[in-house]
Amino acid sequence: MGPRATLFPVRHVIALDVGGTGMKAALVGAKGELLHQDRRATGRDRGPGAVVESILDFAAELRAYGEQAFGEPAAAAGVAVPGIVDEEHGIAAYSANLGWRDVPLRDLLTARIGNVPVALGHDVRTGGLAEGRIGAGRGADRFLFVALGTGIAGAIGIEGRVESGAHGFAGEIGHIVVRPAGAPCPCGQAGCLERYASAAAVSEAWAEASGNPEADAADCAKAVVSGDPKAEAVWDRAVSALADGLVTALTLLDPRTLIIGGGLAEAGETLFTPLRDAVKERVTFQKLPTTVPAALGDTAGCLGAGLLAWDLLNSTDHTEVTT
């Protein structure tokens, strides 16, 4: 049974958050309300071409659903993808997880869903946009969002927008070198922050220290709470490295609010209490930001993609009115 149409047309946009194995999607109203949500697999096991087709097919299905349920097709779309993103030209430049390179995703989506405006964004920057504007950083004119997941990435928030940089690399805090001549990183450097303080790095260190190859960062956090000295040593090393990287970022960016998200942040105060103390110990002239956990969870990417779409649409509407 299909969706029941509303009495009056409801203007909305398509929001897609593409991950390594799955996609989260929503139809988002003008006030940020989630009108419809859905999930799909990316089809990564069938190759990069299949991933692109899965995205296009999913977007087309969302457009059809919206037209039937809300009386008109989506007015725009926003898509968040992992890897290197050329946001200006709408190109998914590279993703090791998805296996693609230089995919003109914006043009492909525009053609598939009816020639509507499409915004393409980096997944972490897009999630950071949502956290900064409507989540944990709401009201902050300057914020830094840091996601501690398989790697570490960030989003630099300035007056309600997120800075992508001249080449799409702004916010890559995970590749600040905190331990010179340290562990090699796939990026080509050695001693990068994400090799010490990501959820993946903590999982690897705790699996080795505990002798349990199945142990992960969440297990380490639980062992810290129970007073396990080996877990405390692993955790302290990660917090120390993270504090070093954050102080470098604070020195450069001077954010008012520091938002920490991702898998490692799920440890709550087991992470935040020692991290706040470690950062405070390291600053001299710098001003301490308010440090808070992310608030939107795994909906941040989708909500951020919706914001990208509405921002693009509002900009387009404004341009059409003023020209």
Write the topology of this structure.
Layout: E1 12-18, E2 22-29, E3 34-41, H1 48-70, E4 77-81, E5 84-86, E6 91-95, E7 100-103, H2 105-112, E8 118-122, H3 123-134, E9 142-148, E10 152-158, E11 161-163, H4 194-197, H5 199-210, H6 217-225, H7 229-253, E12 257-261, H8 269-282, E13 290-293, H9 300-322
Parallel strand pairs: 1-4, 4-8, 9-12, 12-13
Antiparallel strand pairs: 1-2, 2-3, 5-6, 6-7, 9-10, 10-11
Helix pairs in contact: 1-2, 3-9, 5-6, 5-7, 6-7, 7-8
Short description, anyone?
This protein has 9 helices and 13 strands.
Order of helices and strands: EEEHEEEEHEHEEEHHHHEHEH
The Rg value, from CA coordinates, equals: 21 Å
In whole angstroms, the N-to-C terminal distance is 45 Å
Number of domains: 2
Number of strands: 13
CATH superfamily of the largest domain: ATPase, nucleotide binding domain
Taken as a percent bin, the fraction of beta residues is 15-25%
CATH domain fold name of the largest domain:
Nucleotidyltransferase, domain 5
The 3D shape can be described as globular
Q: What strand order characterises the main sheet?
A: 3-2-1-4-8
Q: What are the segments in which pLDDT stays under 50 over at least 5 consecutive residues? A: 318-323
Question: Please, how many helices?
Answer: 9
Q: What is the oligomeric state here?
A: single chain
Q: Helicity level, as a percent range? A: 40-55%
CATH class of the largest domain: Alpha Beta
Indicate the mean pLDDT. 93
